[in-house]
Amino acid sequence: MKQPSRVLCTLLVLYGSLLPAAYGQTCAGEGEAARPPAQTDDATKGYAVNDLWQACGQVWRAASVKAGAADWQAVQVSGLPADSFGAHTVFAGGTTRMVSGYTGHALDVALTVRGQPISQTLDITVDGQLDTAPLGARDQGTFAVVTRVYDQSGHGNDLQAVPGKAVVHIGETQVNGLPALSWGEENGPGGFVLPAHTHVDSGSFFFGTTGAYASSNSGYAAYPVPLMLGQGGHEFKVYFGGYQLDGFVHVSDSANPDQRLNLVVTNAPATFSVWAQAATYHVQSGNMRAAGRGRIDVPTLQGGYIGFNADGGAWFSQGRNSGIWTGLVLADHVNNAAAVEQFRVASVRQGRQVPQIRNALVVLGDSRSEGFRVADGQNWPRLAQAYGQYQSYNLAVSGATTRHLVGMLPAAAQVAAHSGNRVAVVFGGYNDHLGQNHIGYDETLANLHKIIQNLQAMKYYVVLVAEAPTDSVLRGKIMSALASGALPVDATVDPFAPGQVLSNPANTQYWDKDFTHFTAQGQAELARQIWSSIRAGFAQSGHRE
Questions:
Q1: 3-state SS of the chain: helix, strand, coil percent to 5?
Q2: Average pLDDT, the chain
Q3: Taking a C-beta distance cutoff of 8 angstroms, is the pair 171, 135 a contact?
């Protein structure tokens, strides 16, 4: 693993003024994560006005991105994320302090201790952090399941786990050193219920998360669903990927059940927000933002779900959320855009997010990259983030064919339009030849060729993961096409070659019992093997004409 260098962030004269004293400290980081912005961090590098930059605990906002003369102004951060909306914050909670001065209960969890189920409350301590010590008492191999998230706002709007579907874990993963609420494919459908008496202004509400997401896409019944507000036919919902598996953020209300917005959510640590104002829905992920039309025809929305597959249907049993959250905030009214910006700035600083990072990874694939049958975001694209800092976009979806991968190309183009050096990893084709899909091998190869060519035209360095031995015919055809140049990729990764630990699908340490998917250890091995090509791709894509 690449070790971050120790960088001395010293007081500097920048744009004629002295940086705040807080920046005169030693901090761990590398590259853009440990340096202040410069005048050359401008529009030609992909930056836009109002973009944020965080390094060593200081936040800057871009006032101008004029070529060669960018103006990044230091932002004074006051308060914590939920303070931004004052009395309009109707829920704030998570695994860290979200409201200034809060100490007290954070989570109720169900544990198994010496074979017996018990309930335990985890508190936010005086230092603002979650006391996770009680989790150490649970039996080995068992999870701590969250049954309640306490409201730090003082309104008493605690989130309760959906009855019979308490699936969210704590203590399994972290985001930038903070423990996180986590979902995964293995967790199954579930989430939290907003109190029925909770109301928000339908034309001016706010919902925001801090932490990360394990997936940028969804499938079948349009999940993940981070939020659904309302009931009785008057709901608002935000979800990723849509029914076409396109990778974009979608919103839904009573006037339009599926409105695609021009945004792809990053899976790197970031703030995600959605809010309504002036008949417009706004969404934001890191420094990226988009907007769509809002047409809810009732004044308020009552109750709802957070992180729950609300559609049900034939695929209900596979419904899941990909949230890896450290904090959640819901406000019943947004007075002005400044409050939203204050939330974003406070969240960036608290979570040590680095929205300024421009390198981007896009993954096009199926269940093996989405993380089918592993818990708590343990898919290889998320695990690979431990090796370097970049914006990650995992568009993979369980059941996706190469036709679906072609349909993800517009999302990859949207990412490319706002990134610097970029790498695309393609790992798919197995589902084409399942009985229900009837896609021939020739079309699979033609689709892969189209995907590779289109990604390269977008200036991606394209890495193809060789097909697994589960389908020996497809593997043979892909290897032959690579050897002949019929699949003109920039690099190939073959984790399944003879002698590799993933070469034998019967090895249950790395492979699921279905001989197709991977265990968490298998996903970690994929991340390790694929990372070297991702790193090389970032270096080489910057020199591509």
A1: 25, 35, 45
A2: 90
A3: yes
